[in-house]
Structure formats: C-alpha cells, structure tokens
Amino acid sequence: MSNKGRSTPRVVCCAIPIARSANKVLVITSRKRPNNWVLPKGGWEPSDGMLEAAASREALEEAGVRGKITQFVTTIPTASSTYHFYELDVADLDAEWLESKERRREWVDYTEAIRRLAWKAELAQGLSLSSLAPKR
C-alpha cells in the first residue's frame, strides 16, 4: 500500500460509538463502498488539537453521534495510515447530520459488528481490543 504521495502515513482517528446499556456499537456505511460497513473515522486536522477530538468530530460528521470519548483503545499502524481508536459513549444521535444523505447507520451487537467490519482488518482489530469484546 502506498502513502498516496505523503512522506509519512496519514493519521486517522476512529470512534467506536457505544450504547453501554444495550451493549451495542454503531456502524455506518462507507461512502466509497456503500455496501460495506465501517466505524466513523477520518484524518486528524491541526484544528482538532488532540486526537480524541478528531475521533469525536468524525463521529458527529459521519454518523450524527454526540457523546463523550471515554477511553483510548489502541493504535494500529498500516503502510498508508496510523489508526488511533477511541471509545465514545453515545449520549444522543442527530436525526440529520452532515453526511446523512450519504451514509446509513445501524446499532449492532459486537459479533455482528466484527462480521461487518471484517473486510477492513484494522477496523475489526480495533473493535476487538475495545471493552465490548468478550473477555478471554
């Protein structure tokens, strides 16, 4: 995989939106591959300041999620990007949001989320290290 013209890998911040009481995670459809599911994620921007702020911003833009980042999960480096995962406890979902015309969202349990994210290994791996993962 290439860095797409960058000299260093892209910094990607990923939210794992969780409904604690229901033990569910919110997944969204990919814009590039509308039949595939992803977690809200996107590039860190200098205006974000901290990485978790970028994860929270991406969750709001891509999924209409409002809530609180509760913990850092992991960092996963790939050839083109470095992914930083954060759990986000969902307080509210906006009925309309920035990308609502381009994406679907759905609450699913951990097993179903892992199945839907399996096509993108780093996303499934990030979720598998979260507090939703069954204890071994």
Automatic annotation (TrEMBL):
Keyword list, A-Z: Hydrolase, Magnesium, Metal-binding
Keyword Nucleotide-binding: no
PROSITE patterns hit by this protein: NUDIX (PS51462)
InterPro entries linked: DDP-like_NUDIX, NUDIX_hydrolase-like_dom_sf, NUDIX_hydrolase_dom
Domain Nudix hydrolase, residue spans: 9-131
Cofactors (names): Mg(2+)
Pfam families per the UniProt record, alphabetical: NUDIX (PF00293)
Coiled coil: none
Keyword Hydrolase: yes
The protein, known as: NUDIX hydrolase domain-like protein
